[in-house]
Amino acid sequence: MTQIIKGGNLPVSGEPMRVAVVRGADGPGVPEVDPAALLLDDSGRVRGRSDLIFYNQRAHATSAVALLGNARSEDGRLADWLEIDPERIEPEVARIVIAASAEGGTFGEVPGLYVEAVSTVTGRRMAVYSVDDDDATTETAYVLGEFYRRDGGWKFRAVGQGYESGLPGLATDYGFTVEEEEPDAESAVAPPPAPGLPEAPPPAPPLPEPVSAGATDAVPEAALAPPVGTPVSKTGAPLLGTFTTRLNRLPTDFAADFPVFSQEGRGEDVVRVDVPVPAGFAVVDVARVGDSVFDVTALDHRNRARSPSVIHSWMEDFNGRGLVDHDGNGPLRLRVKGRGEWKITVSPVSVLREVSERIEGAGPDVLAYAGPAIDLAVRHRNSRNEAWFRLESVRRSASRRDLYTGYRSGRSTVALTRGARLLVVSCDSPWSITPREVTPHPNRREGEIPPFWKRLR
Fold first, then answer.
1. What is the total count of domains within the chain?
2. 128 and 226 inside one domain
3. Which end of the chain is more exposed for a tag (fewer CB within 10 A), N or C?
4. Which residues pair with 421 in a beta bridge?
5. What are 93-144's pLDDT values in tens digits?
6. H or E segment at 171?
7. CA neighbours within 13 Å on the CB side: how many for 380?
8. Which of 173, 188, 208 is the last residue of a domain?
């Protein structure tokens, strides 16, 4: 029996699923309903801003949770869809809360509200929870249910809890905070095509296929070998010396320099960076030969993976760059997951390219910026389903903000306020970023950023 009541729970399979937030009808007097998902750790709190998936941030960095869009049935019902792939969910995530917010009214004015989970593999209904009319009255945000880990698997619980403070109040209860400086984003990408209603779920999407890095068909074997005569550490890993020439204008106190470290290997391994890396940011370059998912994650002093991943990519035979925020508790250690040969190089942020002119890339990268307020013209190209592009801003305080998230191919212009920051690109496709001077606008002050909760779609 898949139908459960408030407080009930039942097991669900670990296969990919689509979750629909459905209401009976819309029209005059019926508020607009927006679904949301929050990824929580074992303390019941989000780990950061990226763990909230909602109308202004439509996918998680791991692609484990994403908003797809909505669809209407012949009888007037409207369903908003989310997609969840349990296999991509990070081990640190213990629960996924499914919620919704109402704009222009309350949930007491939303008829026939229910949530349903459907397998994308078989089309089988896995769980259904209908909200009683008496349970939804003056609330403007509502927690419908949650998926949680139990005995190595997943279960779904019907929650049915409302919030009169709306989505900001709900998110705050789960540890989500919005700092005084708002995110540097001025537009959002349109959602991909939505599937149908729960009774007739669409066929399961194809599994993501590794894509080529484009101009680079393979990483030459020579790229995996250190230069002849390179000094090595006591572990055999080459030490490439101290980087003394700065390639960007980041302040010297943004992150300290240190000797460049490099190590090569094959398959899964833990890389112990055998040079004194100070607490703060460091750059991780990866040259990889292989065709499976490849993931590099920093480990803390208790041997637990830290979030987010330094690099997570499906690209075949790629060169990529990621960012790690070292906590300074002992040596920096990186866990490598993936098949094939690889070479990892750890460098200070002084090696990063600065966004002073058009920059092109293919795959994950990290850039630097230190200057006045500007606009960035962002372009990305990918025809593969479930392909996402993400651009983040990372300040000296380690606060991360999404500047832009795009699906498949797209373009946008985002605003950067004045100051030094790192720009993190997460994608498996070609892209370009072009800086432009801020264009004066009669209704826009220089550097003005819209509020975080303002719907940007």
1. 2
2. no
3. N
4. 369
5. 999 999 999 988 899 999 999 999 999 888 889 999 999 888 888 999 999 9
6. helix 166-173
7. 28
8. 173
